[in-house]
Design brief:
Length: 285
């Protein structure tokens, strides 16, 4: 398949939030090389990583069939939302898919997001949480040939032992009825796997840059504001499958809880510090 021209608008932009995760990012690129959707671009949203990430991106860019843009800001602590906003402004598409830099997409991941897109919907995917041992077994070879996305005996046994979790989310089915029967509850946004038309993010002024620590800010805050704007949430469980590599659990800090509580109390649809906030020192490569 031919490489997407940088002078035409791709069907979607995949925004990958990264901080010094070189091995996982390499695996993500391996997974993107085998996507069933050809017409897409990638924006790497880099929250101050060292030169190894830039070197990896540059190496992949030269051989890639899809356009890759690297947006980086200086490392001044956790500022994921700021770099995500800059990535939105750098995107060439009107449809945006967001993942984290430690999550490896199934080969149908982008196709599923695009095929299920609706004008007024935010698509809410989930993730399979791989345990420490299984995460170490994921190699470039197992990603390139698709072994990593199979529900293997080793994965099932690891789940029984309490290592891996949410293994049922690795089952892909196109049947809307079956997916609804399996998951009748209300969808929820995960910051590591959701998609939305860019217009909706512009209506709420993007991600709230007041959050300076993980949790709530890149999903709950966005979901609340998009709901106020009139967007609906649509579940992608058992579609758009994503495999999350293990890392120590991140706790939501009290400051984030305080900021989010204030947002909910105010019912303010538009965040004050978002897409229209100019952050210095950010550059695109």
């Amino acid at each position: 398949m031919s490489r997407v021209s940088r002078h035409t608008e791709p069907s979607l932009t995949l925004i990958v939030a990264v901080y010094n995760a070189v091995r996982p990012l390499g695996l993500i690129f391996d997974a993107l090389d085998r996507q069933t959707l050809a017409d897409f671009e990638v924006v790497v949203a880099d929250d101050g990583s060292g030169p190894a990430v830039a070197d990896l991106v540059e190496g992949r860019r030269t051989a890639s069939r899809y356009a890759i843009t690297h947006i980086r800001q200086p490392d001044h602590g956790f500022r994921k939302n700021a770099i995500l906003n800059r990535a939105i402004t750098a995107s060439a598409s009107r449809y945006l898919v967001f993942i984290d830099g430690d999550c490896i997409p199934h080969r149908n991941f982008l196709e599923d997001h695009l095929s299920q897109a609706e004008p007024d919907a935010v698509l809410c995917g989930r993730r399979v949480n791989l345990g420490p041992a299984i995460s170490e077994r994921v190699t470039p070879g197992s990603v390139r040939d698709g072994r990593f996305e199979r529900i293997s005996l080793a994965l099932l046994m690891d789940g029984l032992k309490g290592g891996s979790a949410s293994i049922e989310d690795a089952i892909r089915t196109r049947s809307p009825l079956l997916r609804k029967l399996l998951h009748p509850g209300t969808p929820a946004i995960l910051g590591c796997n959701f998609s939305v038309h860019r217009d909706w993010m512009e209506r709420i002024n993007g991600f709230n840059e007041d959050y300076r620590a993980p949790g709530l800010g890149e999903d709950s805050d966005v979901a609340f504001r998009l709901g106020l704007a009139g967007a609906s949430l649509k579940s992608l469980r058992n579609l758009a499958i994503l495999f999350h590599l293990h890392h120590p659990k991140t706790e939501v800090g009290e400051e984030n809880r305080r900021i989010y509580a204030a947002v909910v109390a105010s019912r303010e649809m538009i965040c004050n510090h978002g897409l229209d906030t100019l952050s210095p020192g950010i550059h695109a490569v």
